[in-house]
Amino acid sequence: MPAIPSLGNLRGRAANRGNKVRSPIPVPPAAYVVDCAVYVDGERLAGDWTHSAAIEEVRRRREGFVWIGLHEPDESQIQGIADTFGLHELAVEDAVHAHQRPKLERYDDTLFMVFRTVRYVEHASPTTANEIVESGELMAFLGTDFIITVRHGNHSGLARLRQELESDPEQLAHGPASVLHAVADHVVDHFLDVTESIEDDIDEMETQVFAPRSPVTSEQIYLMKREVLELRRAVMPLAMPLRRLSEGYTRLVPDDVRSYFRNVHDHLTNVSERVAGFDELLTTLVDATLAKITLQLNSDMRKITAWAAIIAVPTALAGIYGMNFDYMPELNLRYGYPMTVAVILGICLLLYRIFRKNRWL
């Protein structure tokens, strides 16, 4: 005879059905895998590849490399790729959560490099803009036969860069290190573009600061300094990783690619010097703005003082005649009132001309 379930068992099953955890909806790879390609002798192999099939093809041929582009993957989405290519868990965590400063780290036979990308936000005037520089991040995992790029942010896409490289098979024939160089060069070129745009904004702000009755305030200049600081955080820390790559830090970067990193480092040095100059110039503009404000306050105080001295004359005479003493001979004069008014106007006019001559008014 089959056992009859107890009331407690029935309640437990009902509770389990009510608390059943729903499995998350799987995200298709197309949502975060931008592109996955196999390159042999600088030429892209035809077909659509998964990350596992691509690396198997490369290792079966014993030549070529895989380039995978990802856009803002989460931990579950990148885990399969990390297991297939043997990526270090700390580097994977940095690639997922982002918010890293530019750096270069080595994990066994894999390099992990972080770039901060910037984009210039168009605006009508630097004196009214709330945001001038928008930043993002770009990470790269470099191995002997693969490179994986992870992008965070809605700008600095690599689709056009990939097309340019595919049109130059000789460069891609150098291996995945050539892609890392192209990415670094792409990021630094964007630095140059943003730097030139900010330089134009600073020139415009400088012109307005020294113009008469300038509407520029110190708060607007501090806003510009904050945006320059955002650019500086992306540019300055990148110098050391590029120098290490150009000096033979790892065998993953061949000698014929190393010289290209020196060129990128030279461009970055140029950007760094210009950004440092921006900060000094903005500090000077802040000092000039505060000096103009102080000078304007002094001018206003002189005007107030001059008008107070002029008004003191009729005030003093009116105070004397308002005392209403019995023995005041001036009260009995027939022309006392017009004479008093004339004296007041004469003294006030004299003081006005004196202050005007001394440029107090």
TrEMBL record:
Q: Which UniProt keywords apply?
A: Cell membrane, Ion transport, Magnesium, Membrane, Transmembrane, Transmembrane helix, Transport
Q: Name one GO cellular component term.
A: plasma membrane
- Which compartment or compartments is the protein found in? Cell membrane
Reactions catalysed = Mg(2+)(in) = Mg(2+)(out)
* One GO molecular-function entry: cobalt ion binding
Question: Where does this chain mainly localize?
Answer: membrane
Topology term for the membrane: Multi-pass membrane protein
Keyword Hydrolase present in the record's keywords: the answer is: no
- Where exactly are the transmembrane stretches of this chain? 304-323, 335-355
Q: Where is the signal peptide?
A: none
Q: Which family does it belong to?
A: Belongs to the CorA metal ion transporter (MIT) (TC 1.A.35) family.
Relate the protein's function as given in its record: Mediates influx of magnesium ions. Alternates between open and closed states. Activated by low cytoplasmic Mg(2+) levels. Inactive when cytoplasmic Mg(2+) levels are high.
Q: What is this protein called?
A: Magnesium transporter
Q: Which organism is it from?
A: Amycolatopsis marina
